[in-house]
What does this fold into?
Amino acid sequence: MQKQRICSASDVPDNGMKSYDIEGRKILVVNAGECFHAYQGLCPHQDVCLDEGYFDGQLLTCHQHLWQWDIRTGDAVGLAEAPLEKYEVEVSEGEIFVVQSSALKAVDMLKDVSPASLERLEGLARREQLPAGTVIYEVDDPADDLYVLESGRVEFTIGRDDRTRLAGFMLRKGEVFGWAALLEQHPRRIARAVCHEDSVLLRLNGEAMLEALEADPTSGLMVMRRLATLVARHTTGPQNS
Amino acid sequence: MKIQVNARNRTHLFEASPGEKILHSGLARGIALPYECASGTCGTCKAKRVSGEIDDAWPDAPGRKSLKSADEFLMCQCVARTDVVAEVPAYVQMMDTGSCVPCAGAGRIASTEMLTHDVMLIDVDTDAPMEFDAGQFVLLGVDEVEGMRGWSMVNFDRHARRLRFVVRRKPDGVLSDWLFSGTSRFGTRVSLFGPLGHATFYPSLGRDLLCIAGGSGIAGVMSILSRAEQDDYFSRHSGDVFFGVRTARDVYFLEEFTRLRRACGQGLTVTVALSDEEPPSALVNDYPLIRFDRGFVHEVAKRHMAGRLGNVIAYLAGPPPAVDASIRMLLLSRVTADNIRYDKFS
Ligand SMILES: Cc1cc2nc3c(=O)[nH]c(=O)nc-3n(C[C@H](O)[C@H](O)[C@H](O)COP(=O)(O)OP(=O)(O)OC[C@H]3O[C@@H](n4cnc5c(N)ncnc54)[C@H](O)[C@@H]3O)c2cc1C
Ligand code: FES
It folds into this structure.
């Protein structure tokens, strides 16, 4: 999405929010007093319109099942199981414009990475457009690269030959898979990853990522912490490392 | 029938008996499929059919308005006709160990008593003992009425063989008309599915208890209070109960609240909010241990809880507008969502 005009700043009242349909997607504009924020307009949980929710100046809450987000970052708070996709906002001459931000900025694991390191990581990322049906990796392939979903849908299956089983799927911008690439002596893939729809992925080499993070240990530590949480969460089921 | 649910994190496989709702089959096997009302109104249990045939037992369910395409369906209303593969775009885990896994059962109506002109106290004896958590509900059905209804337990007992409910007559409601027709329903066989519901209370939560009930929403609150009393909870934490009804003739459980106040001491406060009239002085004088106030229940709660919401866990139940108003009030008072539990009697 190119830079896109959404509305006039005066259209959204102080501490209020409004959603707009732009090129087939809903975008929520929030007026937080001193600045504006823009997010995906539908709740990542069950596609409920977020403009019907609550905004208290700090937290945005979906009225359906009370998922909440930090209004400054879109980070999930409390019950929420997914962050909100954030758009970069520009206000110029009283008009609000948004730009879609990079999928890397939507990656939970990279949330605390310094802007400089994030830029380095952006430089490492290869953007790949893959048609539906593409096998991204097979069981037992070496786990060299990590992937970030930008759009589309990726499914994972475990098992071999005719004894395979679906082991989860990913469909949100910023979801990461193949994170075994960040582990020492990376294990081999234990699942098969296939594009279920035409998909766009960012592909990052694990070694190169680790090198970039070694140069910035503070960011590196935060990434490893979030990675540990991710691993813990996924040990209850999915095999998409 | 074999059901396969593809969730975001993994695949769940389970069997469904003929005629059994897909939601019920999964829950009964300890799979924490998403649901809220379990009765076709909220849309939380929606799933997408990937393959197989299903029958929709209630094509007019209001919850269907949250479905986006023809192959989406409500797991709480649909039954598999063949093996079914369905997709649930959520993380679906197994239920926590220690939670009460629901199952289908049966029982009979053991007694009924009118508490007010439109509220009935009903005891159901179950064929088998049921374990449930304080604040939970069951689905209950009778042969003469299509579909099941959610009713929250009033009591809290281990291995319960008797479930107690309070049911308010809904004008033109189908089960209401059957129940309040004047014919005695004593001895009627009922089918049950439960326990259900996430608005559960455990003494280990260790927070101040806030309960805001609109009308028969008080049912689950009584169960929570019963559990708290058994655990001497109010010697360690405060408890504030707000019970909202329209007028003095709609209020009940005042003797029970008085007994609880005596048993639990200063820790527990009970406030009855009348939305449509000033509390009559007769009522105020007869029940000195209960506070009466005028206003909508969420407004009254807001007034009396000012400055005391910092460490609460809140339980809300009743008609959806009352629950929504309370949720809004609490969120805007900076109570975090993980400390708000609710059942909408939709
Ligand atoms: C979690 C929960 C807990 C509840 N606890 C209580 C309680 O403790 N006390 C109380 O008085 N009420 C409670 N209710 C409300 C209760 O379930 C009924 O909605 C209410 O009693 C009115 O029933 P009715 O048949 O008179 O009204 P109706 O309007 O005829 O039906 C009400 C509900 O019954 C279900 N239903 C109706 N027709 C069908 C059908 N053909 N197939 C399938 N389902 C159908 C639907 O869920 C509908 O919303 C609770 C509701 C929920 C969701
Ligand atoms: S849980 Fe099925 S509609 Fe509410």
Summary: Confidence is low (pLDDT under 50) at residues 237-241 of chain A. Residues 105-236 of chain A form a domain with the Jelly Rolls fold (CATH 2.60.120.10). Chain A has two domains: 4-101, 105-236. Chain A is about 15% helix and 35% strand.
